[in-house]
Amino acid sequence: MSHPEVLDSLLHEERVFRPLPQMIIEAGINPQDLRAARDRADSDLCAYWEEAAEELDWFTKWDQVLDDSKAPDYKWFTGARCNIVYNALDRHIETVNKNRLALIWEGEPGDSRQFTYYELYRAVNRFANGLRALGVTKGDRVVLYMPQLPETVISMLACARIGAVHSLVFSGFSAKHLRERIREIQPRVVVTVDGFYRNGQVIRLKEAVDHALLDSPAEKLESVVVVHRANVEVEMDSARDYWYEDIVRHERAHASSEIMDSNDPLFILHTSGTAGKPKGIIHSHGGYMVGVHRTFKWVFDLKPTDIFWCSADPGWITGHSYLVYGPLLAGTTTVMYEGHALYPQADRLWNIISKYGVSIFYTSPTQIRTLMRFGHRYPDQHDLSTLRILGAVGEPFNPEAWIWFYENIGKSQCPVLDTWWQTETGMIMISPMPVSVLKPGSVTRALPGIDADVVDLEGNSVPAGKGGFLVIKKPWPAMFSAVLNDDRALVDHYWGIIPGMFYAGDVARKDEDGYFWIQGRADDVLNISGHRVGSAEVESALTSHPDVAEAVVIGVPDKIKGEVAKAFVTLIYDAMESDELHKELVDHIHRELGPIVVIKSIEFCDELPKTSSGKIKRLTLKEREDS
Ligand code: 6R9
């Protein structure tokens, strides 16, 4: 990282959206409550999180809320015994939630399956017993190479139930990638499917598992469990492979919860790795459950009647925290869709919202930008009136896409919550609540109990309007506990860069109201003639042009300026590539950001390379430029 570390902030977005009066009346947490919660957390952090922990069931309560004696190796709820699955299932079975829908699943071909809390509880117990029968015990690891299927949720919970550590590998990754993960994780069991549907095709996952396991990269691996989904022919190794239905058929629908220490590991999940090698992030039962439960209920203002849909894949942290664990901990109905957003046409998501009466829809900016390309005719064909709250996560939400989402999907009635967090944080950290005043493009303020700031490399807060590094200054319960096979990572990558603070790796600025604006990853900063500019700002300027759907900007070396910007853009469906448009876009950037941003060229593309969670792979574009 080079000095000066402060970024030039060029973008000025001045639109403000105030909460509708009925939202303030109806919200579980109104602005006054929110202020009071912030004050409580500021004056006594541990008391604030202890109050959140009291809302869940524990087998044994904690000796200490936070043990910071070995910082940055923080431990939450030490001495406590719990199991996240007990809180996600068992406690609902004792209440009116027993017959409430826990999971609504829709397959890409249009088939649908639904589970009440009691049904999900029984299915999880059967598979938990099945895994125990295969010899899986507390502390063993299980790799789930699974798409968006009910059995994916069931497998995650079945592992956690018996104290095994689950590790999901995104179903879009190749056999080679899976092999790498298996080698690192050393699972005892791999769970997969014969195949699944994606964009009208059948993707054969079991076949990929067979390739990945050639020459035994996993010494501890004993069994592969295969779920039937697409009825494709697969080869079964009689010494190793089992059909899921054979494993669960004779098992009892009751299984005891393993008594876990609060700090025992729950899962390993690799970061998306937009830059650099993915890290295996480890989360534990106790703190994760407290942080995810509190943020899920508060940020989305959960009501007993809500139908919640998080469109993220479970192979991403968003799927873990807000498709599976958050909604189930809160006793909500969670929706899951197997397939592609454009299949069979670009109205699939709007169709699902109207079909199931979704009231809270949590998605990603990249998804919205993709669907925005088709204009408003598709959303206009569906009844979206059940929606009351919209949310997004994963990348900077450019104001144009934010406003499109707000107007065309939320019909100017639903707050758009742009939530900032990471695999490492486990839970939402900086985000508006439904009663917040919103500014498109800003993630607004840190949630109560979260001490976020923008600082220079010495750790000094930078003044409002200047860019710097996003840090978290105090620990939080859903923080990751370790990085797989890397004891030094906690210090080297996170807490030791700016000593005493969690370094998030993002650049951001705060405005005069204390609102955060994320400018991109710290390694994506452009340095043009000594001016340091966040790539997200240039991208946002580009997407504010009506013809542009998505944009990505990278730095390319330049003899005179040091670095100049090169842009890749996709256009909306009725816009045409031309030299005039190229020139117009260059002028547009200069009008929006000033002459500092020197554009070398703009390349028109049909598609941009993306990670599993839809983040643009700048590294791929950079490598392509360098070669
Ligand atoms: C949950 C998740 C984390 C990185 C993070 C940042 C980017 C996430 C964002 C956002 C701008 C938001 N990011 N949310 N950028 N605005 N609301 O995405 O986890 O896959 O680990 O990625 O994503 O750069 O550092 P993960």
UniProtKB/TrEMBL annotation:
Residues 36-88 form the Acetyl-coenzyme A synthetase N-terminal domain. Transmembrane segments: none annotated. Residues 97-476 form the AMP-dependent synthetase/ligase domain. It comes from the Bacteria. Gene3D superfamilies: 3.30.300.30, N-terminal domain of ligase-like. The keyword 4Fe-4S does not apply. The keyword Iron does not apply. One of its GO terms (biological process) is acetyl-CoA biosynthetic process from acetate. Keywords: Acetylation, ATP-binding, Ligase, Nucleotide-binding. GO terms for molecular function: acetate-CoA ligase activity; AMP binding; ATP binding. This is Acetate--CoA ligase. Residues 537-615 form the AMP-binding enzyme C-terminal domain. Its EC number is 6.2.1.1. Pfam families: ACAS_N, AMP-binding, AMP-binding_C. Belongs to the ATP-dependent AMP-binding enzyme family.
